[in-house]
Write a structure and sequence with these properties.
By secondary structure, this protein is an all-alpha fold. Helix content is 82%, strand content 0%. The chain has one domain (2-162). The two termini are 18 Å apart.
């Protein structure tokens, strides 16, 4: 039974790690036009306009999510077969780590919202702020929440495993 629990924990970790890596890559691609305006990468390498980049970022993210949703459904199917395995994998420690990760993600979303409002009211009226456009705040919030939630859970789950 112990090896099954470890296998399921590893499977959950791999699913979340895949979602995290795919989301970070898509977010980096999505932020490329804004970062390009600051550091002027186009002088050194060619890259198409921002709209194809946004489509590529959303496509990459959708592809990542579809793959890992399929893996998650397989994970849930394996857990549904064995009640004792399900209770062992989702014990109180894991539930507490999820709650801590949700709390961290809430504060990250709150910080992104405050930053966006500060940018919009303080910096955007100035001339130089138009040269560094940020993507729509909804996308910043969505990607910020996913990255912070999954990253925080993986971090908290690793810390609790070290305490054993």
């Amino acid at each position: 039974m112990d090896s099954k629990i470890e296998k399921m924990n590893r499977m959950r970790k791999n699913i979340l790690l895949g979602v995290l890596i795919g989301t970070v890559l898509a977010f980096g691609l999505f932020m490329y036009p804004s970062i390009n305006r600051i550091f002027h990468f186009t002088r050194r390498l060619w890259w198409p306009g921002s709209f194809p980049i946004f489509k590529a970022a959303l496509g990459l993210w959708a592809f990542t999510l579809l793959i890992f949703i399929a893996r998650y459904l397989l994970y849930k199917k394996k857990l549904k077969k064995d009640l004792s395995l399900r209770t062992a994998v989702n014990d109180e420690r894991v539930k507490l780590n999820w709650l801590r990760a949700y709390r961290f993600a809430f504060f990250v979303v709150f910080g992104i919202t405050i930053f966006w409002k500060w940018y919009e009211t303080s910096l955007y009226p100035h001339n130089w702020a138009h040269k560094v456009p940020l993507p729509a705040p909804q996308w910043l919030i969505v990607w910020g929440s996913v990255i912070s939630l999954v990253g925080a859970f993986l971090s908290y789950n690793r810390e609790s495993r070290r305490e054993k």
